[in-house]
Specification:
It is a single chain. By secondary structure, this protein is α/β, with parallel strands linked by helices. It is about 35% helix and about 20% strand. The protein is built from 15 helices and 21 strands. Helix 2 runs parallel beside helix 7. The longest helix has 24 residues. The mean pLDDT is about 95. The chain binds S-adenosylmethionine, iron/sulfur cluster and FE3-S4 cluster.
């Protein structure tokens, strides 16, 4: 069962907010201190960064995108693939000259990467100019850690293994004004053999439904138009808890909150996607008709070796059931190419599944061995050159499918959220997650519009705004 950290324990942080604020008032009285936060990885990290920014704001910080003008620089890191880790080391290395020129700057690294002992070790040995390293389970202690790091010369590194707790009530500084992330659970119990997440995020634990509902109500009252519920496997929300609210029930309760808003969620694991869930989506009008359902491989032997606990048939059955009860549902997915030992024939099963389902879009990754996971120890005879060729073949196939799917929308009218203004265009997002470009007043960003789709080119559509809500 999940344990929320008691209020009294969280309150121990309060004096440190003031101490850090005083530190900067004394050392930099002319203007408020600035923080530059760079977030890598998934929305879970984005949500964590919003809490860290909330705490910094309470310490008197403003924010900047420029490391050159920041007094505090934080990299919130991702460990899911080697490429993500390399990028972070490259970026952190580039900060050395800033620390040399401005020794008072505090550089910090947090997130999933530093939960791996070999990474924490490497930061200590080779990046001594990093003043603070803290893991995913101590974010609530950030004010105290920051204060300590400001007052010691050597690197402070705090990366304890998880203890199954949740810190509620942390301040939040949201990046968006109409789209919000709402974590409903943390961690993962699935141990897919290729994946590092369970090791760096700990065991699955669900937030209390009443706390989630209160936060959702507040977001709606603040005018947020889109709420995305977050978890590594949202379908197992509530498992092992005594409140008896499962994910479908949570969706129903959020859907019942009065107001004009859309509910999205990610990610779903096919092994726990129940028919009840699709029936719920059919019945809940505020739930977006889009489902991100990673399949990872279209071959049963590979799925078994990945420890995914479903097979190709079960996956396809889920998709057809969903399409029966929610005819306008669109699917996106994640897939791994070149899992250890995958043969050409097995890869072709992935190609055929992609054709059969017709995803709106696909996130395709080449297998990246993660230290400490079972797959990293498996025989992997297929050369990277071949994997890259397969990857390109799959991407080309998906591009064709995406183009076909978008072409089917030409001439239709679609409801979309006007999201970002750029170069005289606004990019609007349909329920299916596809993007359409329209010419419209940038002041309309954050509102829903009805758009006629005029044309479609492989990834992007162009349209005309017919009306704005
Ligand atoms: N919890 C989600 C699920 O099970 O679908 C996915 C979370 S993971 C952060 C996002 C995606 O990264 C996965 O769906 C998988 O396709 C990919 N991924 C994870 N580990 C990987 C690895 N070692 N190599 C390549 N891709 C990987
Ligand atoms: Fe990783 Fe699998 Fe958990 Fe997703 S379900 S986070 S892929 S272990
Ligand atoms: Fe990366 Fe951690 Fe998310 S490893 S994908 S940031 S949970």
């Amino acid at each position: 069962m999940t344990r929320n950290i008691p209020r009294e324990e969280l309150d121990l942080q309060l004096p440190f907010y003031e101490k850090v604020r005083q530190h900067y008032m004394n050392t930099k009285p002319e203007s408020p201190p600035l923080a530059c936060i760079r977030t890598f990885g998934c929305q879970q990290n984005v949500a964590d960064s919003e809490h860290i920014k909330g705490m910094l704001a309470q310490m008197g910080f403003g924010f900047t995108e420029e490391v050159e003008e920041a007094d505090f620089i934080l990299f919130n890191t991702c460990a899911v693939r080697e490429h993500a880790c390399d990028r972070v080391f490259g970026n952190v290395g580039a900060l050395k000259h800033i620390k040399r020129r401005r020794p008072e700057v505090l550089i910090a690294v947090c997130g999933c990467m530093v939960q791996q002992p070999h990474v924490a070790e490497k930061l200590k040995e080779s990046y001594p100019f990093v003043g603070l390293v803290f893991g995913t389970h101590v974010i609530h202690r950030f004010p105290e850690l920051m204060w300590q790091a400001l007052n010691q010369r050597r690197q402070l590194s705090v990366t304890p293994a998880e203890d199954g707790v949740i810190a509620e009530g942390l301040p939040t500084h949201r990046d968006g004004t109409f789209k919000a992330w709402l974590p409903i659970m943390y961690g993962c119990n699935n141990f897919c053999t290729y994946c590092i997440v369970p090791y760096v995020r700990g065991r699955e634990r669900s937030r209390d439904p009443e706390i989630i509902l209160a936060e959702a109500r507040e977001l709606v009252a603040q005018g947020y138009k889109e709420i995305t519920l977050l978890g590594q496997n949202v379908n197992s929300y509530g498992k092992g808890e005594s409140h008896g609210v499962n994910f479908a029930e949570l969706l129903r309760r959020i859907n019942a909150i009065p107001g004009d808003f859309t509910i999205r969620f990610m990610t779903s694991h096919p092994k726990d996607a129940s028919r009840e869930l699709f029936d719920t989506i059919a019945a809940c009008q505020k739930v977006s008709r889009h489902f991100h359902l990673p399949f990872q491989s279209g071959n049963d032997r590979v799925l078994k070796a990945m420890n995914r606990h479903y097979d190709r048939r079960q996956y396809l059955d889920l998709v057809s059931y969903a399409r029966k009860v929610v005819p306008d549902i669109s699917f996106t997915s994640d897939v791994i190419v070149g899992f250890p030992g995958e043969t050409r024939e097995e890869f072709e099963d992935t190609l055929s599944l992609v054709k059969e389902v017709g995803f709106t879009s696909l996130f395709t990754f080449i297998f990246s061995p993660r230290k400490g996971t079972p797959a990293a120890e498996m025989d992997d005879p297929v050369p990277m050159k071949t994997k890259t060729a397969w990857f390109q073949e799959l991407s080309a196939l998906q591009e064709e499918i995406s183009a076909e799917r978008l072409a089917q929308l030409v001439g239709t009218e679609q409801r979309a959220l006007l999201e970002t203004a750029e170069d005289g265009y606004i990019e609007a997002r349909l329920a299916s997650n596809s993007v359409v470009r329209v010419e419209a007043d940038p002041a309309l960003v954050g509102r829903y519009a009805t758009i006629r789709i005029d044309d479609a080119r492989s990834w992007i559509m162009h349209g005309t705004v017919l009306s704005v809500e």
